[in-house]
Design brief:
Blueprint: E1 2-4, H1 8-21, H2 44-55, E2 69-81, E3 87-93, E4 110-121, E5 125-132, E6 137-147, E7 150-151, E8 161-169, E9 177-183, E10 192-205, E11 212-213, E12 224-229, E13 239-249, E14 254-258, E15 287-291, E16 296-299, H3 301-309, E17 314-320, E18 323-331, E19 344-346, E20 355-359, H4 377-385, E21 389-390, H5 399-402
Parallel strand pairs: 10-13, 15-21, 18-19
Antiparallel strand pairs: 1-2, 2-3, 2-4, 4-5, 5-6, 6-7, 8-9, 8-12, 9-10, 10-11, 12-13, 14-17, 15-16, 16-20, 17-18, 19-20
């Protein structure tokens, strides 16, 4: 519905009169249930009341002008408060059954009917106003300005950094928390950033090919993210900035995943049937160097400790872009049983070197006479692309030399 600001106030009066003459009391217009824990079909009078409250709110006073033109659309707003005090909100279509995001909203969320008000003149922006029908008051507002008709922030510019989460702090000064992101490319002064998560930071999850809204508590090390900053960057090391928006994206590089099941090599499924966990145990950000000759992997201290703490035996999968390349088993040198025709990572015991190695079997000195999946060009290309590849730990190697390795 398109409305001119000249008669917006008049429209509010008419709606209120219609509701009054219908004989409806505020009791019959009680929100969406006693606990507001789910959307429902609103009556036409309830719909009119929501629009009336939104357009007549003080939040709209600065926006309704004689020369302004806008459209209104009914929506739903679901929100949940985290222990840190931050509030995460989901904007859901009025026909919630048709919105893919609906199933991703936690059951504990509180729901409110809302009005999305879209201005086209004199500037393009939108306001979302949510209303509690129990109190007939505004409970949530959000303003967004559009650039050339394209919503901001993420859609109107490229992310400021793309990288991997390497550390998480659950509390910051006035913030729900912060994440340490190691960027694919630095800005010349830093390639690591402490990114502050504000109460209104939007966290999107696109890893499954769908769009889900994520809580701060869902962030984990090893996740690949795109970050849009809000405000200036403090040029420390690591650099520091607050996030306006964070998108979790599909991991595009080398990674090692540990599966939940304890699977011996003889029981391993076809790779195409493997369901990878959401997050790898080792991401490319955890790799300092990968030897193309020995398949030794030098890890960050945090990643090395994660591997040391894992229980054995366990199946692992080496993948690139979240696509499995080969299977393996996480084994212990204390086990007497040999492993044939299967790559093996032995649980590390050393405190001196933060290095693990992928062997072709156990014991490693045996000749198993099988094709070596460790030198797959998909893997080698990923490691070279991210400057992790070496002939020995700490020395780089061109990809053309890797093609004949092993």
């Amino acid at each position: 519905m398109k409305i001119n600001g000249f008669f917006a106030a008049f429209l509010v009066v008419i709606i209120m009169l219609v509701i009054g003459f219908s004989g409806c009391s505020s009791d019959s217009l009680a929100g969406i249930g006693e606990d507001n824990h789910g959307p429902r079909e609103l009556t036409s009078n309830e719909e009119d009341l929501v629009v009336s409250i939104a357009l007549g709110s003080t939040e709209m006073e600065d926006f309704i002008r004689q020369d302004s033109t806008f459209k209104t659309e009914l929506m739903w707003l679901a929100e949940i408060s985290e222990e840190s005090g931050s509030v995460v909100a989901w904007q859901i279509n009025y026909q919630w059954q048709l919105d893919d995001q609906f199933n991703s909203v936690p059951e504990t969320a509180t729901w409110f009917p809302a009005v999305l008000i879209k201005f086209s003149e004199p500037e393009q922006q939108e306001i979302l106003i949510a209303v509690d029908l129990n109190t007939e008051k505004v409970v949530y507002t959000r303003n967004r300005t559009f650039s050339s008709g394209v919503p901001s922030p993420a859609e109107d510019r490229l992310p400021d950094i793309t990288g991997w989460i390497t550390d998480i702090q659950t509390e910051g000064e006035g913030l729900p928390g912060q994440i340490l992101v190691k960027a694919e490319e630095g800005d010349g002064t830093s390639n690591e950033y402490w990114v502050g998560i504000k109460q209104d930071t939007l966290i999107n999850d696109y890893r499954r090919g769908t769009h889900d809204i994520m809580l701060f508590s869902g962030l984990e090390t090893g996740q690949q993210v795109q970050v849009w900053f809000d405000g200036p960057i403090q040029e420390s090391y690591p650099a520091q900035a607050d996030a306006r928006q964070i998108d979790l994206v599909l991991n595009e590089e080398f990674a090692i995943y540990f599966l939940e099941e304890t699977i011996v090599p003889s029981e391993m499924l076809v790779l195409s049937q493997v369901q990878l966990p959401e997050n790898p145990i080792i991401s490319i950000a955890d790799v300092i160097s990968y030897s193309s000759m020995t398949h030794e992997i030098e890890l960050t201290p945090e990643a090395y400790q994660r591997i040391k703490n894992m229980e054995v035996p366990r199946a692992f999968v080496v993948a690139v872009a979240s696509q499995p390349v080969y299977w393996g088993t996480f084994w212990s040198s204390w086990f007497s049983r040999s492993i044939e025709n299967c790559p093996v990572i032995l649980k590390p015991l050393s405190e001196d070197r933060q290095v693990i190695q992928i062997d072709l079997g156990y014991p490693s000195w045996m000749d198993y006479g099988i094709d070596d999946p460790r030198s797959d060009l998909i893997i080698m290309n990923s490691l070279e692309r991210t400057d992790k590849l070496s002939t020995v730990i700490g020395q780089s190697v061109p990809i053309k030399e890797v093609e004949t390795a092993d």
